[in-house]
Amino acid sequence: MSSLANQLVRAEKEEIARAIRTLLARPFLTADDEPAAFAVIRKRREPLTRWFDYFCGWRLVVEPREGYARLVKVGSRPTATRPARRRAGGPPFDRRRYTLLCLCAAELLAAPVTTIGMLAGRVARAAAVETGVPPFDPVSADERAAFVDALELLERHGAITPTDGTTDAYLGDEEAKVLYRVDTTRVIRLLAAPVPPSRLPGAADDPAAPLAPPIAALTVEARYGGDEPTETQRALWARHSVIRRLLDEPVVYRDELTPAQAAYAASLTGRRMIRRAAEEAGFVLEERAEGLLLVDTEATATDTRFPDDGGPAKVAALLLLDLLVTAGPLPAGRLDEEAAELLRRFPQWARAYQSDGGAPRLAADALEVLAMFGLARRTGDRVAALPAGARYRVDRGPADTEDA
After folding, report:
1. Can you give the pLDDT of all 404 residues of the chain as single tens digits?
2. Does the bond joining 307 to the residue before it have cis omega, within 30 degrees of 0?
3. How many CB atoms lie within 10 A of CB 401?
4. Cβ distance 317 to 367 under 8 Å?
5. Which residues are within 8 A (CB) of 322 and not within 5 positions of it... i.e. 6 or more apart?
6. Beta strands of 39-197 (E only): which ranges?
7. Which residues fall within 8 angstroms of residue 62, CB to CB, at 6 or more apart?
8. CB atoms < 10 A from the CB of 42, how many?
9. d(CA 47, CA 45)
10. Are 18 and 300 within 8 A, CB to CB?
């Protein structure tokens, strides 16, 4: 093979690897937001589609004319570590905002054009007739704020586009005029559950059916054989579920895997597949006795980082982690004391926590960061560092010695 041909092959592999990592970070990617990345995904959509299907069992939908790519990710287990958020980096959605998001998405399918007032009216009528859904009152400022958060999430994904007015105007005035163009296809693409809630047995016609179906019922994937899988289906599930977790989670500990997953990850076939998936996606695979993790040296697939100075909670998390690593499992109250000491030493720092009850809130938020990154775990009233936390231990150098 000529030198030019080799260069072309390498370039194609690099493009595919970068596109895989880009889609992992942004499963709903639009040409308007990232034209260069979308151009590569459009060009390489066939090998990308095969890669995600083979290694993860995830479906990739690329719509060149509509200008978006949707990676339909299904988690290997329920997790709350990646919630929808109010604006970029804002607080996570609460139950009310998720409810309004679902109602908005359902009502937006009715017409390609609507106004914020018309949509609010339809949502209010839908909430009034849905069993178990609290009424929606657009007169309430809190209700309007939750409604606006749901609409802005839909805006960020291109499901609705304001053509006259701004969504924020509705916060202060329920009579605000905002006109939207609706992309019903994108609204539909937002749902990633393999089983739509409306298709669950008894969901539409059984009054005795549960109001909130369990997550397991929504995430059943027929390709794995249900309660009586074949040997091939069990092997397929093991491959997909292990690699999904590696791609979705900062670190995967062996003691958190099911026996079938642990056996697959330790087998010759499993190790070969994991290494191949990592290499083709441009990750560096770290294998330890305690677990595995994928490192993206370019941080393309990274949606949040640690350590960084992105907020007081992450700074406090790094400092508390060093204490957990060096001092061993500690009572949760000890972390509250350490957080209080940090606030006392730096009175101009973390102003949101410089109030009564601020130290326990800071410690709780820091612990949430550590748990999200797989660095610490709370069991009852005890908090312990996990093996991956050792890489952040502060190296204090050789101890000072006195002259004799």
Report:
1. 578 778 888 899 999 999 999 999 999 999 988 999 999 999 999 999 999 999 999 999 999 999 999 999 987 666 666 788 887 667 889 999 999 999 999 999 988 999 999 999 999 999 999 888 999 999 999 999 999 999 999 998 889 999 999 999 999 888 999 999 999 999 999 888 887 777 776 554 444 444 455 667 778 888 898 888 999 999 999 999 999 999 998 899 999 999 999 999 999 999 999 999 999 999 999 999 999 999 999 989 987 888 887 789 999 999 999 999 988 799 999 999 999 999 999 998 988 899 888 999 999 999 999 998 999 999 999 999 999 988 887 665 555 443 43
2. yes
3. 6
4. yes
5. 392, 393, 394
6. 59-63, 68-72, 113-115, 160-164, 179-182
7. 41, 42, 45, 48, 49, 69, 70
8. 16
9. 6
10. yes
The set of long-range contacts for 98-107, using a CB threshold of 8 Å and a minimum separation of 24, is 99/127, 99/133, 99/134, 100/136, 100/146, 100/147, 100/149, 100/150, 101/150, 101/153, 101/154, 103/127, 103/130, 103/133, 103/136, 104/147, 104/150, 104/151, 104/154, 105/154, 105/159, 105/187, 105/190, 105/191
- Reported pTM: 0.85
- Give 382's strand partners: 331, 379
